[in-house]
Amino acid sequence: DTAVSQTPKYLVTQMGNDKSIKCEQNLGHDTMYWYKQDSKKFLKIMFSYNNKELIINETVPNRFSPKSPDKAHLNLHINSLELGDSAVYFCASSQELEWGADTQYFGPGTRLTVL
Amino acid sequence: GENVEQHPSTLSVQEGDSAVIKCTYSDSASNYFPWYKQELGKGPQLIIDIRSNVGEKKDQRIAVTLNKTAKHFSLHITETQPEDSAVYFCAAWLAGGTSYGKLTFGQGTILTVHP
Questions:
Q1: How far apart are CA B109 and CA B21, in angstroms?
Q2: In principle, which of A17, B31, B95, B113 could form an S-S bond with B80, CB 3.0–4.6 Å?
Q3: Contact residues of A toward B, CB < 8 A
């Protein structure tokens, strides 16, 4: 059973285009995240949502707009794509976000290549 | 904010040897320390975690130790096998005061186990 799924797995597009990545979790978790992994494998949080509300926005350019239609989905829309946006984007979810964190479960990633 | 340093960046061992990866963190308020394993083309998967009220935790061939005074924690893998080859990430969770917290990841260690 897939816990956290993302589509598409690969995304190749031209600079200036707009694209979306979708994420769904079937774990019943309250909190979802988007992470960016650069070419050096460094993982950095971009956003987190708790019960459809934005909790963390890590000074990500406003070309990136996450949307959570319900607790199980967190999509990422990117406008006016730039070369530097090329990376692997991971969605993750956890049971809750509190003073003591819970395990985060990651999706398989979406490799975005901007030409 | 939190800063996590991870060493070494690459580690090569012979099958059956032990492997140790070390991390230091900067904020003494961090209270949750997970370790993730990322295989090629996949998302990170939790392998073990430790909370700040515990000094050591073991799960079969994997153990994690935490020294809160020195602000460092380590991953120990014994009797390594070729399938242990992957990128390993440490992370530290810092609660954000009255707001939600987040995970900060180390830079990753590429572990190669030679048969």
A1: 7
A2: B113
A3: 4, 40-45, 48, 50, 55-56, 58, 90, 92, 97, 99-101, 103-109
